[in-house]
Amino acid sequence: MIQQEESYRMPRGILASAWLLGFVMFSPMYCVPPMAHILKEELLLTYTQTGLLFSAPVIMVAALAIPAGIISDRIGVRKATGIGVILIAVGAMLRGTADSASTLLMFSFIYGAGLGWCYPNLAKLVSGWVPQQRAGMAMGIISTGMVTGCGLALAITMSVIFPITNTFQGVFFIWGIAPIAAAIVWWAVVKQPSHSVIHTQSARTNTISFISFRRTLRNKHIWLLSAILLLQNMFAYTWAGWTPTLLMFKGATPEMAGLLTSVSLWVGIPTGLLMTRLAYRLGLRKPFRWIPAIVLAADAVGARTITLDMSWIIMVVVGIAGMTRYPTILALPVEMVPKEQVGTASGLVLSIGYVGGVIGPLMGGRILDLTGSLNLLLIVLAGISIAMDGAAFMLPETGSATKRLRE
């Protein structure tokens, strides 16, 4: 039994490389919200345009997730993700040379292209090493890398990194160093998870890709999951992108605003690990998706009136609720489709889902430009979370408890 249990675990080197990849995928992106006021002033931008600088990489996720997933199914997760992490490193470093809004946007698209190539392959990597029922636990561990990168970028960009360089270009340059290290580690450590699967695919590459894509398109649950991730990202990226500004409106300094915003992410790290393990032990998934949606709706409404000195409470609750549902959503393509379709299914879900990560921050900037306040936006976020709650009820239960009952 012990040997069987060990065989279900990703090798430590692979897991560490995937964790580091998660860290560098989002840390260069999340250094933007704490600097939003600086970018707006120095580049003469509106709030909407500033929101575009934050969401530009997400546009590339939406554009490239499907082809990246298909190509990953064909050439293997190691090569596909390796290409993506190199693009992340190149784009992140180039942002440190930007001297205008247009060049910064262009380099952000290059970085986003790498993000779009890497993201769908996380599910593919997990599917190659662990069984479906443990996919949520593996994604929970990898998700802590993403959350750590986001949280650290929010927490130290203004308080530690900006004072070193006193320029936004210098901040981008420093946050571009870690992706270079991640690219080196990835190519040195990660191997293909299953040679037998890769060889089988290589012999029938075109046929399998076409059949996989066609079957994925006919899967109504994949489309529903895509809609849920769209709503999830509308909430998450709008919250992360504009909460520092909301806190500054309440009287926080830029340094304090970034640090307070990061609290939700630090709380999310142990939450992601504990809740995914609990979901596995219980053999249930649905409660871990719909209960957090109700909590987040209440949080969004409460954020309108809560005082600055009590804002940390909102951040803690958002962190717990957000990281309770996020890994279970990311793991669903692994739990709902055969291994040979995971890359394609994950690509489709991410491509549609991350449109929400574009719409949300732009919507927040537009509301702020028109009203000078974020109160209306918070009401919209509450409505988005309630809509997601309704959609989550419609997804099937993929946990082992339901399968045991059927048997």
Description:
With 407 residues, this protein is an all-alpha fold. The chain has one domain: MFS general substrate transporter like domains (Growth Hormone, Chain: A, Up-down Bundle), CATH 1.20.1250. It is built from 19 helices and no strands. It has helices at 2-7, 12-30, 36-42, 47-75, 77-94, 101-129, 135-165, 168-175, 177-189, 195-203, 205-217, 220-249, 254-282, 287-302, 311-336, 342-353, 355-371, 375-394, 400-406. The longest helix is centred in the middle third of the chain and has 31 residues, at 135-165. Mean pLDDT is 83; it is low at 1-8 and 195-208.
List the helices and strands and how they pair.
Layout: H1 2-7, H2 12-30, H3 36-42, H4 47-75, H5 77-94, H6 101-129, H7 135-165, H8 168-175, H9 177-189, H10 195-203, H11 205-217, H12 220-249, H13 254-282, H14 287-302, H15 311-336, H16 342-353, H17 355-371, H18 375-394, H19 400-406
Helix pairs in contact: 2-6, 2-7, 2-9, 4-5, 4-6, 4-16, 4-17, 5-6, 5-9, 6-7, 6-15, 6-16, 7-8, 7-13, 7-15, 12-13, 12-15, 12-16, 12-17, 12-18, 13-15, 14-15, 14-18
